[in-house]
Amino acid sequence: MKTIKKAGRASNAGFTLVELLVVITVLGILAAIVLPKFTGQTAAAKTKAAKIQIRSLEDALNQFEVENGFYPATEQGLEALVSKPSTGKEAKNWREGGYLQKSTVPKDPWDNKYIYLSPGSHGAFDITSYGADGMPGGEGENADINSWDEK
């Protein structure tokens, strides 16, 4: 028996470039955390994951700036990426749903909040993870991971 298909409109469904970049970033973070557990390099993997997360936060902050004309102030913090700021300069074109895939700002791989300053000492903004010890400075896995060091 032969089936007949009706001609229809082509679907515009698909993925945007931003969605694909978010998926790639998430996969990179997962790979940086999970794969080294099998090879015993957890500390190096966490450092790499923090660098990837900082890059992702930088991308989201840049999108915020393009749409609103400014970076969130230190007081508004990275929370401005997931909820419209209620203090400071008004984000008139804030994107409904925010600028991150999840509705929360990620913590660094050691479960500490990222430090955000805007204006920063090294650019429009600075993002820092204090590493495994959660304290400024340090060496090895305790070393700070800074957005300006990664450029």
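The above is record 1. Record 2 follows with the same two-line structure.
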Amino acid sequence: MKVLGIESSCDECAAAVVEDGRKILSNVVASQIPFHAAYNGVVPEIASRKHTEWIYNVVEESLDTAGLVPKDIDAVAVTTRPGLLGSLLVGLSFAKAFAWAQAIPLIAVDHMLAHLYAPRLETDTLIAHNNTPEYSFLGLLVSGGHSIICRADNFDDITVLGTTIDDAVGEAFDKVAKHYGFGYPGGAVIDRMAQSGDSGAFRFPLPNLHKGEHRYDLSYSGLKTAVINQLEMFRVEKNRDIKPEDIAASFQKTAVEILLRALFNAAEDTGLSTIVAGGGVAANSYLRARLAERQDLRCVFPPLELCGDNGAMIAGIGYHYLIRGEQSPLNITASARVSGFKKKYP
């Protein structure tokens, strides 16, 4: 069965066709980075307008690449939550129209669940290494909008163990990069700069979530404040010149260690030894290297092209709803947030 997946939750306008939940026939992603770079962050109104302009051509290209026409599609899966509401509504409206015109099922998808599904898609890398994860496992969902540590027992069955009480990790990367003029998107720029920096030049503090039960939770507002407003306080060698690469490397190291502290706590307490990462920050080279050091844990990452938002993961997970006999009504709407994906402190 061939499922068309549409993803428009933020600033990637994406569509893909996946066969039987595994085989990627096409995966088209139109990036809006040049349109948001001047603002060092995503501007919601610009994002939704670009989705409106591009969605038809992106879907058409995904069908052409797969060698298909609309009547060959068995169902349409589309992101309905979480994300920027205006952007979500563009993709959802198009998907509704496509499903109605072709008289095929519409399937609403939570794109955070889809990120955990991404490593199950067939790619040359995953097939060659037989790396497809089996349930149950720990999920690490890290992006500009979310930082979530969860237990996954099925494709649509997760239990959130920990999440951010303030900023998401990707958001912290973007804000630090914006403050110092490193460039946009911040995650990729800081990762690249850190390769030639000294991660020990600054000793930034880890958050102390001492109130209540926050063993698996995360916080980035303190780190962001330290890097932006209190840099000199945490410099190791006071007489040493401050290099942008050292700031990037030291910040990145601490940001990743915050994630790993909570993640390793969850692995210890649950006894789960397989970790599946997803989201844009899952492409971070330091995060991948640190997890690779843990010989007692099996860490599964999607290929780089499937870390960010894409239509293939939406189509792939949508297939499983389809074969279970589930579909969404045409009057379904989008939701910007999902309850439980963020916490308050204490």
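The two ends are 47 Å apart (CA to CA).
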